[in-house]
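Subject: sequence -> structure tokens, single chain

Hey, anyone have a minute? Need the predicted structure for the following. Not urgent.
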Amino acid sequence: QPPNPTAQAIERVVELTYSYEIWRSLIDRDNEAEFKTVCDQYDEFFSTVINSLLLSVTVITYQLFEKRNQNDTVSISSLLRSLPNGNADLASRIQSDIDADWPVVLKVFALRNEVYAHRSNASISEDVFRRVGITPDQLRSVVNLAQRCVALLADAVGERSENKFLEELGSRSSWASEDLASLMRALNEGE
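Reply:
Had a minute. Here:
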């Protein structure tokens, strides 16, 4: 039996949520005092983790929002095309939400395309990040968009209740941040 595309999109959004939350916690200046000693002590490790998490966020965002008209990939666009008849208003609402945030989604695509998927010979990664100019809050808005879109689609096909899925994502975000804080405390105490 082929995998359920909606369930696959849900899994991608869960991974996107975890990756973003941990990345954001690691770079957030509010956590600097708590995390600085540990991050300095294990600099190479945490630099790699931060980069890998951002890589994950950009790749998953690209997967979820790509607009190819092929049925061999799971994306919000392919899920919209496969919605049962009678969901035109929902499809229109989701597409309108995507269109409103599309300029920010394109910034994530630029990072994925020019830094992670294909290294540009024309510029170095730092130049691409500077040119694209995406902020952590803009990245958060794209994560939230993916969460809303997939929650609405999952609800429409009876896979998962929209509200319960969004609540679950909120809980998972908190767990990811709490787990990271516990890890940092343990590493700090183990010096």
